[in-house]
Amino acid sequence: PSLEQRIGFATSADGTAIAYATAGTGPALLQGGHWLGHLEHDWVSPVFGPLLRRLSAAHTLVRYDPRGAGLSERNPGRLDVDALTDDLAAVADAARLARFPMLAVSQNVPIALNFAARHPDRVSALVLIGGFAQGSDLRGEAGHTETMVQLIRSGWGDADSPFMRAFATLFVPGGTSDELSSFAETQRRATHPELAARLRRAIGGFDVTEILPAVAAPTLVIHGARDAVHPAAQGQLIASRVPNAEFRGRDTADHVLLPSAPDWEPVVGWCERFIAENSG
Shortest CA distance to 43 belongs to which of 73, 2, 84? Predict the structure, then answer.
């Protein structure tokens, strides 16, 4: 596929500017924004780029930087679930997407679920990777949240810092040296340390458990068995409460789907087939 992407801006309900990119041709697929993201860097990143190019080969891929990160407004007011859901809605409207499948990863999973519950007529399918319904604070892991916040403030984006080693151990323990280096660069480009800390603290308080039964779209939940960022129990919780959901576990500790992972091709195949079968 073409390596070109087109970047534009949407305006969320509270006036926050949200950057989004469109690439490829074919039926639409919206990928939600994750807090460690930058539209331009991710496109050429050895961690995120291979999946983006793969998806854009068969789809018009629309993705965006969430508020506070990447090319979107860096110092937003609100960082709650509803504000972030408004951002997703603004991008879908700006890209003129009527009914579409969504791919969501990590903290974008509760946002995608909230949007799907709000707009059942617009979401044809959901693929959710490494996500959660309850943030770490609400599942009794407030200490985990604060540890992450302190690590962020200690060495955000510095590949040589102890923070980076600890952070990488949580997110990409199986990463290659190139992937780890790119992961550090993504941090540096994504946002500044204080906003990253604020985002991570907000994520700890997310809770969408009550809306799960209202999600009508066919849903594929994928989760690493030993994920240390969001435990597999959270993926199982989502799959057990969303009416039309199925769960697929990965035998890995990686939170991020790495191109170097032995199961990268099978997992991407699961996503592609599920989207193709449920995009009507």
Answer: 2
Q: Report how far residue 37's alpha carbon sits from residue 69's, in angstroms, rounded to the nearest whole number.
A: 7
Show the tokens assigned to 59.
Answer: 């789809």
Query: What phi and psi, each to the nearest 5 degrees, are found at residue 227?
Result: -60, 120
Give strand pairing partners of 134.
Answer: 207
By DSSP bridging, strand 123-129 and strand 245-250 are unpaired
pLDDT for the residue 280: 64
Instruction: For residue 45, count CB atoms less than 10 angstroms from its CB and return exposed for 0-12, middle for 13-18, buried for 19 or more.
Output: buried
Q: Is residue 103 helix, strand or coil?
A: strand
**Cα–Cα distance between 140 and 224 in angstroms, integer?**
20
Ordered strands of the 100-105 beta sheet: 6-11, 17-23, 60-64, 28-31, 100-105, 123-129, 219-224, 245-250
pTM: 0.94
Cβ neighbours of 96 (radius 10 Å) = 8
Structure tokens at 74: 């860096």
Question: Mean pLDDT lowest for which of 3-17, 180-194, 251-265?
Answer: 180-194
Residue 5: how many CB atoms within 10 A of its CB? 19
DSSP code for 275: H
